[in-house]
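User: Reviewer 2 asked us to show a designed sequence for the structure in our supplementary figure. I'm pasting the structure tokens here. Could you produce the per-position amino acids so we can include them in the response letter?
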């Protein structure tokens, strides 16, 4: 890898579905080596790779199916990682930048507690907004919004569902994040329930489109799905489903998210 990156380790994330593709070398760079121009150049190359990939073309078609029914004005991206140092985060950044461009979405905002000055500088160079407050995923939205949560802690997804837990608001969420189906398959309910109660409750009412992981590197977009909550599939507005739910209360041992 050029740009002063050095190989440090290999990804441990599983990717059962596409063994024929290579894992990307997970590379890191010290924050002292950060060079804005080089980073922008590398992002341009990544953008080209993505724009010319079948993976991206298909993902955009799938997203269009969901977006076309609503007018999306905002993207909020949580947990992308250190884009100033991490090649996986840079690929994930370019995918959402392509989505923003393609669907002419006005605003995009980022938050990750690991961001430092370099990450902010890089996002600023694209005029992307950096949020300052750690809301642990508790964003309440009043208009259709894409939440991009690439390999984000499941408690963040759960907090987001909890914060918009009513018939009127849930349909505003479009979540690009780890597949609900895969999460349910991979984790027994007794472990999942304390950390992802709302995810479990809504999963059978969710429209989930799996993004086929055919990109040349297999561990960047693995397990991604587009989740939406069309009104016609949701429980009735007057149902207890919307009221009889316990507030999230995670045990510290299982906590993957960084608390505020
Ligand atoms: C498993 S890493 C995923 C990083 C990268 N997107 C990837 O796929 O390799 C989870 C990310 O969630 C971030 N995170 C943890 N707590 C968070 C919070 N409260 N709000 C936003 N992001 C958070 C972490 O800092 C980390 O970057």
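Assistant: Here is a per-position design you can include in the supplement:
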């Amino acid at each position: 890898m050029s740009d002063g990156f050095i190989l440090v380790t290999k990804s441990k994330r599983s990717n059962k579905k596409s063994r024929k593709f290579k894992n990307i070398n997970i590379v890191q760079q010290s924050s002292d080596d950060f060079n804005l121009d080089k980073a922008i150049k590398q992002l341009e190359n990544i953008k080209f790779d993505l724009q010319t990939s079948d993976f991206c073309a298909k993902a955009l078609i799938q997203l269009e199916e969901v977006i076309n029914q609503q007018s999306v004005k905002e993207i909020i991206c949580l947990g992308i990682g250190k884009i100033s140092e991490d090649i996986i985060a840079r690929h994930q950044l370019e995918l959402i930048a392509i989505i923003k461009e393609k669907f002419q979405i006005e605003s995009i905002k980022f938050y990750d507690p690991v961001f430092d000055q370099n990450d902010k500088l890089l996002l600023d160079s694209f005029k992307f907004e950096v949020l300052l407050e750690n809301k642990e995923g508790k964003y309440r939205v009043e208009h259709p919004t894409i939440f991009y949560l690439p390999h984000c802690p499941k408690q963040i997804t759960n907090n987001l569902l909890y914060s918009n837990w009513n018939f009127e608001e849930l349909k505003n969420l479009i979540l690009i994040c780890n597949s609900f189906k895969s999460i349910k398959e991979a984790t027994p309910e007794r472990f999942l329930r304390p950390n992802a109660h709302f995810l479990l409750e809504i999963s059978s009412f969710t429209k989930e489109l799996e993004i086929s992981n055919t990109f040349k590197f297999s561990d960047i977009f693995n397990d991604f799905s587009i989740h939406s909550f069309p009104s016609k599939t949701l429980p009735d507005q007057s149902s207890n489903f919307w009221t009889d739910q316990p507030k999230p209360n995670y045990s510290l041992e299982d906590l993957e998210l960084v608390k505020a």
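For the response letter, you might also mention the following. The chain has one domain: 34-254. The CA atoms of residues 156 and 241 lie 21 Å apart.
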